[in-house]
Amino acid sequence: MAGMVIAGGGQAAGQAVASLRQAGYKDAITLFGAETYPPYQRPPLSKQYLSGEYGLDRVYLRPEKFYADRDVDLKLGVTVSGINPAAHTISTSEGNGITYDKLLIATGSRPRILDIPGSDLDGIYYLRTIADVDAIRQAMQSARNLCIIGGGYIGLEVASIAVNSGLNVNVLEMESRVLKRVTTPEMSEFYHELHTSHGVNITLNSTVERFAGKNKVAEILCGDSRFEADLVIVGIGILPNIELAEKAGLECDNGILVNGRCQTSKPDIYAAGDCTNHPNPILGRRLRLESVPNAMEQARVAATNMNGGDSIYDSVPWFWSDQYDLKLQMVGFSSDGDNQVVRGDRKSSQFAVFYLKDDAVVAVDAINSPREFLVCKRLYGKTVDTGKLQDPGVDLKSLMS
Amino acid sequence: MPQIRFIEHDGTEHEIEAINGDSIMVTAINNLVPGIDADCGGECSCATCHVIIDPDWMDSVGRPSEREDSMLDLNPDREENSRLSCQIQVRDDLDGIIVNLPEFQY
């Protein structure tokens, strides 16, 4: 076989294939995806695909025909089970000794599993794949009481769609506030109030101890509290899929270790996306990201380098989340700041919180405020006049010069 | 099917047969036209599918929405006819449209 082999079938994998062909790579490209769908976008799964607004064709990264037309061999439903870096071969669920010239590991991540008594009951779901959402949508038809475990972005996005479709929605969060892992107390409070105003019940500081029910879940027990639930969605974080790389002797530490060129510790093996731990020269540190823009950009960098080019990953992390009619766009990490300024009015649901470190912009949470989002993307790490930044009367363009 | 002529910043041209209902961004992505990143997949969330519409076609294409306009506003390469290509659907009356690609997406 040889040529380029991609282990994984998500967005990084799909983008890498496209970038390789775009760069003029002519030889064999083979993609092994554990799922039976061609590479697709995960962000809409907890948003427009869950609500029914988007069909499958809108979720696929590119139509299936694209791969056939460009002579890309999609091996779907096939898992890569081993890598022999010295021999340049992989083994899969369908056969061994498959050779590669260059290998890209794009194995992504998987939901963290809640392993407590009753977690094998029917009616308990995770949300990561098209198949997961198909099952959830089916279950939502007849469900009345949805319990979401975990008040992170996935949980809250699902809550916004479920409450709009008429379900009773409980969100159980073990921490003292929603979104605690990813944002500041003020933003947590804003989103908490947003959801309660739409009729979502949020219970904080609640550790789920047990699911109860006969075959199918009926109740959730947390300490002295009991919550009725005929549908449960667990969203308590994701874990990088590094086992394949680890087993092959690739260096891993909270992700597969790659350098700025997306190379792993073994020759001719690259990695991209959620599964990597990579250096970010702008942030000045290594990190693992659960992020589509990162997956896409690392895939482009890896593809360029796999094809003999020279590209270094050099992007500011950014994220987005849609809940109700609010579009949240984020740049960087608020925890990097030691000061914050607000531009706009919280009550109007159109505002941005800029986070600064020594007067340099290091993050923004921008709600319905695309200009503020973009100004942070452009001015990241630069010193700004905070007085102007928080004055809505000052045109942001004047800060760019 | 409508034809779209994409012109890269260096002058390279791509004549593409588009599908009605697809966005111009999707048309570019599915045909490996370089110069469009489209990281958010068409949500008007990332502004990395910036294009500059040929002036003769601007009336048919129309002006950006308020949200799209704010996404374009801070782009240093913005021109009078700038649009986000994920927000333009291909239709029969866009047959022959000329779409210019900027040097960089931000």
TL;DR?
With 401 residues, chain A is of the alpha/beta class. In chain A, 25% of the residues lie in helices and 29% in strands. A five-stranded parallel beta sheet of chain A has the order 3-2-1-7-19. Chain A has a five-stranded parallel beta sheet with strand order 9-16-10-11-12. In chain A, strands 22-23-26-25-24 form a five-stranded antiparallel beta sheet.
Notable features of this structure?
heterodimer, A: 401 residues, five-stranded parallel β-sheet, 12 helices, 26 strands, B: 106 residues, alpha+beta, 5 strands
Structure description:
The complex is a heterodimer of chains A (401) and B (106). Helices cover 25% and strands 29% of the residues of chain A. Chain A has 401 residues and is of the alpha/beta class. By secondary structure, chain B is α+β, with helices and mostly antiparallel strands. Chain B has three helices and five strands. A five-stranded mixed beta sheet of chain B has the order 2-1-5-3-4. In chain B, a hairpin with a 5-residue loop joins strand 1 (3-7) and strand 2. The chains are: A alpha/beta (401), B alpha+beta (106). Chain A binds chain B through residues 18, 21-22, 41, 43-44, 61-63, 66, 70, 292-293, 296-297, 318, 320, 322, 327, 329, 370-371, 374-375, 377-378, 396-397, 400, and chain B through 29-30, 32, 34, 37, 39-41, 43, 45-47, 67, 70-71, 73-76, 106.
Specify which chain pair forms the largest interface: A-B, 29 and 20 residues
Q: Helical region count of chain B? A: 3
Number of separate helices of chain A: 12
Rg on CA atoms of chain B, Å: 12 Å
Supply Rg of chain A: 22 Å
How many DSSP-defined strands of chain B?
Answer: 5
Judged by helices, strands and strand pairing, the structural class of chain B is alpha+beta
Order the strands across the largest sheet of chain A as they lie in space: 3-2-1-7-19
What is the approximate shape of chain B?
Answer: globular
Termini separation of chain A (Å)? Answer: 53 Å
Query: Largest sheet of chain B, described in full?
Result: 5 strands, mixed
Oligomeric composition of the shown chains: heterodimer
